[in-house]
Amino acid sequence: MTPPLNAITRCSSRAALVLAGALALSLTPALHAPASAQQTQEAGELMESRTLDNGLDVLVIPDPSVPIVTIELTVKNGAYTETPELNGLSHLYEHMFFKGNAVIPNQEAYLERMRELGIVFNGTTSSERVNYFFTLPADNLQPGLEFMYDATVSPNFDEAEFAREKEVVLGEADRAESSPYYWLNRGVESLLWYRYPARKDPLGSREAITAATVAQMTRMKELYYVPNNSVIMVAGDVEPAEAFATVESIFGKWERGPDPFEVEPVPPHPPLEGDAFVVVEREVQMPVFQLNWHGPSVGEDPVATHAADVLSFILSQPTSRFYKELIDSQLTLGASLSYYTQAFTGPISLTAQTLPDTFYAALEAALIEVSRFADPDYFTDEQLEAAKTILAVQEIYGREQTSSFAHTVTFWWAVAGLDYYRSYIADLQAITRDDIANYVRTYLEGQPMVVGALASPAHIEELGLSEERLQEVVERVRARIAEDAPQATEARQGGQP
Is the dihedral of CA 479, 480, 485, 486 positive or negative? Predict the structure, then answer.
């Protein structure tokens, strides 16, 4: 995905987890970007940062427009730290954060204190971040930070509350499983992340959640909830000097711990060894197919992540060749390409919903379009420049609500590091046609992929849909593409369209 523009950006974890398996078939309308977008401040110019002696990063975004502040704790934790036995426990821990601790005896007292401080709260768990945030009157900044500190360093993990919260988390799993798209997502991801599927699944497994223990929660706290693995964000009506001093006076006594990623290293996802196919049978109105690849890891190939954002946006526009070939042609009801920026292999997905009688034709057309993404005439210079400008405008627009901006910044702190985000707009503007071609050839064109299909029992029978049939279509189209490649190259070199 693109930065907070798309993904994480992200709503509450409860919603985000459910939506993780949903399809993004809606289309982004074209926007008119002001010519001054490229001169607008980078996000880094709107915030101040410091690192305390205990390793805690502190970020401040001053905004005096309304007398409120958002305070947020973000921890580098989530599905990517989970083995199968721990799958879903980062999310369960998130729930236990809002319970009793050494100062607040139980959840009732916790909620009462929130009411006293005027706190609006939530938390989210994703594959590479867990965050907790309170928005409250600016005058309550200090007691709000003290309240967050107590929840951070001294959770009680009361056995009775723990048992109740496991049921709440399992209820979220029930709701997710009620969506047919959840099952498509699960089928695809089990093949895409075949060695470590748990490390991409923040919702987790029922078995692990049911068997979870307080001892596991305590171990998670000791390992990941340390200042040198966390950031405190203060955003809103506060002077930076006051915010830094208040945070240091409260969180400065938090004891540093060992580097959790030296204690428990996160293994990289091994590359796909070949194509894989899955057909999921669920009651849906129209069939859906997905093509999925391993995309770039942001720390290893940051230029490709920017190229991915730009290409995905170009394709989403009604003027694009992709849109015309797959949607205007009426082969699909909707189609999109997405990339989700991650430290540990971001996924790329092409998703399309079709009528039953155009399913195979649409799949063939999608495969052909992917083979052409790197062609020099696949998009115009005007489309390229417009995409970069509008992405920059969307990024800037996302800062309009300070609390949302705070969540965006902490996502990047956790996944890519602040330096990546500080220069995001400039790096986006620097993307060239060659960068996009390199991205396509490295991660998409001819690369192993996982092909998933979701359809009702009736449509599966009508289409003769099976994993073998999907494989036959993919291999046939790829053979045709390879056969046509010399002729296409000759045509391009001759200046023909």
Answer: positive
Measuring CA to CA, how many Å separate 239 from each of 64, 243, 304, 426?
9, 6, 37, 28
Measure CA 358 to chain center. 31
Convert the pLDDT of each residue in 217-275 to its tens digit.
Answer: 999 999 999 999 999 999 999 999 999 999 999 999 999 999 999 999 999 999 999 99
By C-alpha distance, which of 202, 206, 198, 199 is closest to 170? Answer: 206
Beta strands at 68-75 and 130-137: parallel, antiparallel or unpaired: antiparallel
Is the Cβ–Cβ distance between 68 and 240 less than 8 Å?
no
Give ∠ CA 131-132-134 in degrees, rounded to 5. Answer: 145
Is there a contact between 120 and 135 (Cβ–Cβ < 8 Å)?
yes
How many CA atoms within 13 Å lie on the side-chain side of 349? 26
Q: Are 250 and 146 in contact (CB under 8 A)?
A: yes
Over residues 274-328, the pLDDT tens digits come to 999 999 999 999 999 999 999 999 999 999 999 999 999 999 999 999 999 999 9
- 88: alpha, beta or left? (left if phi > 0; alpha if psi -120 to 50): left
Query: Do 97 and 151 contact (CB within 8 A), yes or no?
Result: yes
In this structure, the number of other CB atoms found within 10 A of the CB of residue 431 comes to 22
The pLDDT of residue 489 = 64
Query: What does the alpha-carbon distance between residue 474 and residue 468 come to, in Å, rounded to a whole number?
Result: 10
| pLDDT score recorded for residue 41 | 64
Extract the tokens encoding 382.
């005007």
List residues bridging with 293 in a β-sheet. Answer: 348
CA atoms within a 13 Å half-sphere pointing along the CA-CB vector of 338: 25
Helix axes 159-177, 89-96, angle to 10 degrees: 130
In angstroms, the CA 131 to CA 148 distance is 12
Q: Please state whether the predicted TM-score (pTM) of the whole model is above 0.85.
A: yes
Confidence of residue 486 (pLDDT cuts 50, 70, 90): confident
Non-local CB neighbours of 215 within 8 Å, separated by 6+ positions: none
How many beta carbons lie within 10 A of that of residue 215, not counting itself? 9
275 vs 282: CA distance, rounded Å:
23
Q: What is the CA radius of gyration of the chain?
A: 24
Which residue reads 């426990």 in tokens? 89
Which residues, in sequence order, are bridge partners of residue 242?
none
